[in-house]
Amino acid sequence: MGVFFDYFRAATDDAAADVFDWPAGPTCPPPGTEPKDSAELKNIDPHVMMGTLEALLTGNRYEDITARPRHAATLRFSDDGGQGVLTVTDEFTSALAAANDDQIRALAHPWSQTEEFWGLADPAELTELLQDLRDLAVRATQHQHHLYCWTSL
Where on the tree of life does the source sit, at the highest rank (predicted)? Predict the structure, then answer.
């Protein structure tokens, strides 16, 4: 058993927080509701791993990135800590949306070498995940939406 992280786009924090009550996240809405445009990133957490990715992408200091008020900020979280919805900063969304395929491939290797991956990450697999996330960031930017992360144990 692990922690699941699905990244999705929504127009507002309230619209994103509504996903908290969905049984299996943004891809599994209640009857009569459309699924959210999302990307499944399995074990890629929005705080440490995405902060590290943003530092590699932008050259900004990790400490400055993680100090932003909306960096992995909690919108809703269950009392038992088993499920929640967190924010992703617009700065990260914009930087990721602007990245081309060559930049994504170039990011995957150094990101795979960070301690959070324990030396087990395959840069080719990370490239695919990053391309999916980048494409989601592009769509979020085009629709003037924000990115969010749904997490569940």
Answer: Bacteria
